[in-house]
């Protein structure tokens, strides 16, 4: 029984891993059971079986992509003290992630945000919750750093916490476009410098 459970888990992981890479290239809406079955050498029933539906498979792929981002960017930063130190550590890992993305078409969350922003449904809802949590995490580090005097503060001046969050995310999204669309090898390092400048006192 244990062996069959382990095999089922490995099969599911293999399907999700392939689905994430395919979705990075063709979008979540372009992810099909047929293309996955062909890539994996499996039947369509074998591919969809562990998930129950194409929609659940899409959600599993999106969830895996988010987990990969968290593991690459957020988790390593948690070793630093809250506030400026943690924010700077996250910025460095974030820019490393942009420069050496595990996905063929760059940051999965950025691409999915563009694809799903006008498409109501569970995928959009999940992604929205993810982005809200990410923004809240960044904001928390900024607020702590502002309270310590490490970052300037001022509501409505462009350096309030919400404005700084928007600035950081905007730089990252621009860098992803420059890397993927413009083939700019200098974009990630430029983004790193800009992000650090944004959160400098």
From TrEMBL:
Question: What SUPFAM superfamilies does UniProt report for this protein, alphabetically?
Answer: Homeodomain-like (SSF46689), Tetracyclin repressor-like, C-terminal domain (SSF48498)
Taxonomically, the superkingdom here is Bacteria
- Tell me the keywords, alphabetical order: DNA-binding, Transcription, Transcription regulation
Please name the InterPro entries in this protein's record. Answer: Homeodomain-like_sf (IPR009057), HTH_TetR (IPR001647), Tet_transcr_reg_TetR-rel_C_sf (IPR036271), TetR_C (IPR011075)
Question: In its keyword annotation, does this UniProt entry include S-adenosyl-L-methionine?
Answer: no
Is Transcription regulation given among the entry's keywords?
A: yes
DNA-binding region extent: 32-51
Which residues does the UniProt record annotate as the domain HTH tetR-type? 9-69
Q: What is this protein called?
A: TetR/AcrR family transcriptional regulator
Per the UniProt record, the lineage of the source organism begins with: Bacteria, Bacillati, Actinomycetota, Actinomycetes, Kitasatosporales
């Amino acid at each position: 029984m244990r062996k069959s459970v382990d095999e089922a888990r490995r099969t599911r992981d293999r399907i999700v891993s392939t689905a994430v890479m395919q979705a990075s290239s063709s979008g979540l809406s372009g992810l099909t059971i047929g293309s996955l079955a062909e890539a994996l050498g499996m039947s369509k029933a074998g591919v969809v079986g562990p998930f129950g539906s194409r929609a659940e498979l899409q959600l599993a792929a999106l969830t895996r992509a988010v987990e990969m981002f968290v593991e690459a960017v957020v988790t390593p930063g948690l070793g630093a003290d809250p506030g400026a130190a943690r924010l700077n550590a996250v910025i460095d890992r974030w820019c490393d992630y942009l420069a050496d993305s595990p996905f063929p078409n760059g940051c999965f969350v950025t691409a999915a945000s563009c694809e799903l922003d006008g498409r109501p449904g569970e995928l959009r809802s999940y992604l929205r919750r993810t982005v809200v949590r990410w923004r809240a995490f960044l904001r928390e580090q900024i607020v702590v750093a502002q309270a310590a005097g490490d970052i300037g503060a001022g509501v409505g001046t462009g350096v309030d916490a919400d404005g700084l969050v928007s600035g950081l995310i905007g730089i990252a999204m621009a860098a992803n476009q420059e890397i993927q669309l413009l083939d700019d090898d200098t974009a990630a390092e430029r983004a790193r410098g800009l992000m650090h400048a944004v959160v400098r006192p």
